[in-house]
From TrEMBL:
Pfam families: OS-D
InterPro entries, A to Z: A10/PebIII, OS_D_A10/PebIII_sf
Protein name per its UniProtKB record: (African queen) hypothetical protein
Gene3D superfamilies assigned to the protein according to its UniProt record, in alphabetical order: Insect odorant-binding protein A10/Ejaculatory bulb-specific protein 3
Domain of life: Eukaryota
Organism phylogeny: Eukaryota, Metazoa, Ecdysozoa, Arthropoda, Hexapoda
Key words of the record: Membrane, Transmembrane, Transmembrane helix
Coiled coil: none
Transmembrane region(s): 7-28
SUPFAM superfamilies: Chemosensory protein Csp2 (SSF100910)
Amino acid sequence: MIRISDFHFAGETQCLPLLIISILWTLVYTVPQMSDIQLERTLADRVMMQRHIKCALSEGPCDPTGMRLRTLAPLVLRGSCPQCSSQETRQIRRTLAYVQRNYPWEWAKIISHVIVILAMAALCVAETQRPAVSDTALEDALNDKRFIQRQLKCALGEAPCDPIGKRLKTLAPLVLRGACPQCTPQETKQIQRTLSYVQRNFPQQWAKIVRQYSG
């Protein structure tokens, strides 16, 4: 039997003030939604795209569109943007995919920037530390198919998350992207082991997870 108390991934925290500020900032910079045709014109305009990319990286000024994109894109990239409309989410995903394909160097910098933002949010309120999960307990968990299915549904937003699922959902995308500043070496190794296990044994769910967190 896998007990919730057996698990803890250090550094997983909450930061409601940062979230509230982010939402208020978004509301202040609300701009009319652009049509898909306008979006394609924007993506084709290299000067405008460079301006928005510099805004996203805090390397240049932001117009209202750039500010809103900079606020919402990390949420879409992470897999949940409650304040986005379905059209806005789709357009941001399209924009992120375009930048990833056509501006690979800037994309790498954006990902690093987002990781730092998420890490700062996770670290802004410290949580009482508990012992990390042992390798034996992890292997027991990976052999519990029901338990793994629950965590996969949590990761994909298909079911509620228990405390273990919430921690994995917070830290696994950072490990998947290659950097988890708040993880210990043991936690990084264990999360990599978990991701590898899912990739090998649950290929369909793994493909969904990669799509969801890669934007």
